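Consider the tokenized backbone below.
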């Protein structure tokens, strides 16, 4: 199992022209998130432009399997919308005719807004149309009543102020990734950790930014980021493949992608919070050994405090426990190793049950303490007949939450760019 690596993002000069900002709306347009590889010609052309651009129409036709005529029609439609741009400066010398002019994604004119609402912290990111993150901020998730309205309005206000930094770019869409049970059709969320019931996440965030909005369960969004944003998956044909994504940090969750589409159950995502690990940790549900009670950040902090690794009189985070382990504290190392092994056993059990073609591990529980990966791998090897084969750690590292929100903001555009653009005010 390889350690996570972060792919460098190359920046290019910003466009100098100014586009009009979207007009505020009193009622938000809530559109179900599209966590999938698009299967229409426009999405195929847009995808190859994102991964290979600048690219010629003949090369795009070969890459997508579409005819040159079909590619030409899609390129023309996307040029008219401004999602693509032609690069006449890159036209090979001696060639004649517009079809020879390379085209590329216009990654300088637009942006989308991604918001990941966590139990403790909320991140806001701005992304270009290639899926590259332009910038990000993190705020403390505001406290609110059971409807979450005050917190959501505060988050929307912070996001709007953040996006205003890119005054030369036109925002197109906002995507929200959040835990709990998500009604994608209406953007409504029940979130036990935040104490929210029927929270109008989509309507409030969308109205606050004046943009169409999509809301997705955060683990499913992370699985979609692997499908749509990971550099090594840019043109991968996922047909016939099943991919299991396992996430652990403050919460734990699992999601499946089948045939290039993240499975989103109608009743909301399932939960592995109370999956048995065999530990002796007491869970709030009354049982012992439940997964989140054993491996969550708050559980690790509690274990470290009880063993005297860190002083519990002030605010303590997992980063403090990791720092202690890195500085040679054997007790801290034992706490983090126990978590790594519990995670490895759980991953192995789910893998044996679901038998996916590929497993991806994401979240700071895997990436924040690098020595723990060897223990994860060892525990998987002990429990799974497949060992660590076809298992890797997400390349998004500690920014996995940011990419989950980014892909939620981009998924509808990626899946059907022409139809999506028609819904933008």
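A designed sequence for it:
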């Amino acid at each position: 199992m390889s350690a996570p690596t972060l792919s460098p993002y190359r920046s290019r000069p910003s466009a100098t022209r100014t586009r009009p900002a979207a007009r505020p709306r009193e009622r938000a347009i809530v559109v179900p998130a599209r966590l999938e590889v698009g299967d229409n010609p426009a999405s195929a052309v847009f995808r190859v432009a994102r991964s290979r651009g600048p690219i010629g129409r003949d090369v795009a036709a070969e890459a997508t399997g579409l005819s040159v005529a079909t590619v030409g029609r899609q390129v023309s439609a996307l040029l008219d919308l401004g999602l693509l741009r032609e690069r006449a400066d890159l036209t090979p010398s001696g060639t004649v005719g517009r079809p020879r002019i390379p085209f590329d994604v216009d990654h300088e004119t637009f942006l989308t807004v991604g918001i990941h609402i966590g139990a403790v912290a909320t991140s806001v990111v701005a992304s270009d149309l290639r899926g590259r993150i332009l910038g990000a901020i993190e705020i403390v998730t505001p406290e609110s009543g059971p409807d979450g309205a005050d917190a959501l309005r505060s988050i929307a206000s912070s996001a709007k102020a953040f996006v205003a930094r890119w005054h030369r770019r036109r925002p197109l869409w906002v995507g929200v990734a959040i835990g709990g049970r998500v009604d994608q059709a209406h953007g409504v969320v029940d979130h036990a950790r935040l104490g929210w019931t029927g929270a109008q996440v989509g309507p409030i965030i969308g109205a606050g930014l004046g943009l169409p909005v999509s809301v997705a369960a955060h683990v499913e969004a992370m699985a979609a980021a692997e499908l749509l944003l990971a550099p090594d998956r840019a043109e991968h044909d996922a047909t016939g493949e099943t991919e299991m994504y396992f996430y652990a940090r403050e919460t734990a969750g699992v999601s499946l992608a089948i045939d290039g589409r993240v499975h989103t159950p109608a009743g909301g995502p399932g939960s592995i919070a109370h999956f048995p690990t065999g530990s002796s940790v007491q869970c709030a549900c009354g049982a012992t050994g439940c997964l989140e009670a054993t491996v969550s950040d708050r559980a690790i902090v509690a274990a470290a405090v009880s063993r005297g690794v860190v002083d519990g009189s002030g605010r303590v985070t997992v980063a403090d426990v990791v720092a202690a382990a890195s500085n040679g504290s054997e007790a801290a190392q034992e706490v983090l190793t126990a978590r790594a092994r519990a995670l490895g056993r759980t991953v192995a059990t789910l893998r044996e049950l679901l038998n996916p073609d590929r497993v991806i591990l994401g979240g700071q529980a895997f990436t924040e303490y690098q020595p723990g990966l060897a223990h994860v791998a060892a525990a998987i090897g002990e429990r799974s007949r497949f060992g660590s084969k076809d298992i890797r750690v997400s390349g998004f590292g500690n920014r996995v939450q940011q990419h989950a929100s980014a892909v939620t903001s981009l998924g509808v555009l990626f899946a059907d760019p022409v139809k999506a653009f028609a819904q933008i005010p």
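Residues 70 and 217 are 35 Å apart (CA to CA).
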